[in-house]
Amino acid sequence: MTAKTAKKNITPSTSESQVNFCLLADALRQKNSYQEAASNYLNAILINRNDENSYYGLGLCYKALENYAKAIKYLEKATEINADFYEAFYELGLCHLAEGIPCGAIKNFVRAIQINPDNPNAILQLGISHEMCEEADMALMIYQKLIENSPKFIKGYEKKADLLMKLNDYKEASLLYNKILKLNPEFYRAYLGIGTCFDKLGKRAEAQRYYRKFLVKKPNSHKAPVVKARLEKLKTLAKSNPLYILD
């Protein structure tokens, strides 16, 4: 039976059944009952094989179950039915990243951006994808464009700063972390980032100050023991160097 014939054979009652299965599946997915939700999405698809939302929901279920191959299969089907389905392209990109296929992710994030250029999340993920492809220059350009387009989107600053640290550009990274703190003084990871940058630059007094601020903001962080150990090390260095003045 062709898709056109199948569509003709959908009566009001079968259409209603398809919608009910999809609504039930959506509710189950929201409750993290992914296997049961998947069964209901499949029931909906059996009634109407041309409903992108059923394929999309099914793809999300398999993504949550970490079966990324199946998730990609059904999300791609959703995009075949609806070529302007932003969410499906975005989720496809995430699944490709989870599978360790950043090149496959790039084309999906690019399409998502073409559909909705004002959503910063796809641009962020595009930068991450290029970073995974070891294309640091391209990733930096994308993060910078993201910052310019969405100046209050903190993740853009953070990802660029993190990448600059990996490239040993600690001065520029510290400036970006400072911009984050202007946007949100409670963003504890920025204090750790600045502390690390100053530490790498040999500015130990400044490093200690920001390490302490990080510990005040996030005393129970899994990184707290490492930061405390580094503070003790810096104190030892100060004692062994009489010219070094603690702040």
Secondary structure: elements and pairs:
Layout: H1 3-8, H2 12-30, H3 34-47, H4 52-64, H5 68-81, H6 86-98, H7 102-115, H8 120-132, H9 136-149, H10 154-166, H11 170-183, H12 188-200, H13 204-217, H14 224-240
Helix pairs in contact: 2-3, 2-4, 3-4, 4-5, 5-6, 6-7, 7-8, 8-9, 8-10, 9-10, 10-11, 11-12, 12-13, 13-14
Describe the structure.
The chain has 247 residues and is an all-alpha fold. The chain has a domain of 81 residues: Serine Threonine Protein Phosphatase 5, Tetratricopeptide repeat (Alpha Horseshoe), CATH 1.25.40. Helix content is 77%, strand content 0%. It is built from 14 helices and no strands. Helix 3 runs antiparallel to helix 4, helix 7 packs antiparallel against helix 8 and helix 8 packs parallel to helix 10. The chain is elongated, with a radius of gyration of 24 Å. The N and C termini lie far apart (78 Å).
Poorly predicted ranges: 1-10
Count the DSSP helices.
14
> Could you give the distance between the termini?
78 Å
Principal-axes shape call: elongated
Q: Give the amount of beta strand, in percent.
A: under 5%
CATH class of the domain at 1-81: Mainly Alpha
Question: Rounded to an integer, what's the Rg over CA atoms?
Answer: 24 Å
Major sheet, described briefly? none
What would you call the structural class?
A: mainly alpha
DSSP E strands, number: 0
Question: What would you say about this model in short?
Answer:
The protein is an all-alpha fold and 247 residues long.
Descriptive terms for the model:
247 residues; mainly alpha; Serine Threonine Protein Phosphatase 5, Tetratricopeptide repeat; 77% helix; elongated; disordered N terminus
